[in-house]
Amino acid sequence: MDIELLRDYCLAKPAVEECFPFGPDNLVFKVNGKMFLLASIDQQPLQFNVKCDPEKAIELREQYPSILPGYHMNKKLWNTVIIDGSLSTQQLKEFIDHSYELVIKGKKK
């Protein structure tokens, strides 16, 4: 997955907007005004931060070396996913979907 595929996938979700609140190198995707994905567009390999259920976040970090505690984020709730080829596109999409769903559910409360 490259930045364009990541962008297209995120923007295809309902009510998603993109913005650059942290400068031109950090692409943010929000749903209903709340961030669910942050990507550093100039970093190689590409990586992104996604929200994650705290227990699942720990499990994923233990299982995959390319998943780390969220860089510059609440490490309990966010993971940094490095796109280095060790994870499938389907897995990456599942992480994005999970983050999106957590934010949507949080907004409904």
From TrEMBL:
Keyword DNA-binding: yes
InterPro entries: YjbR (IPR007351), YjbR-like_sf (IPR038056), YjbR/MT2646/Rv2570-like (IPR058532)
Pfam families per the UniProt record, alphabetical: YjbR
UniProt KW DNA-binding keyword: yes
Record-linked Gene3D superfamilies: 3.90.1150.30
Entry keywords, A to Z: DNA-binding
Superkingdom of origin: Bacteria
One MF term in the entry's GO annotations: DNA binding
Protein name from the UniProt record: DNA-binding protein
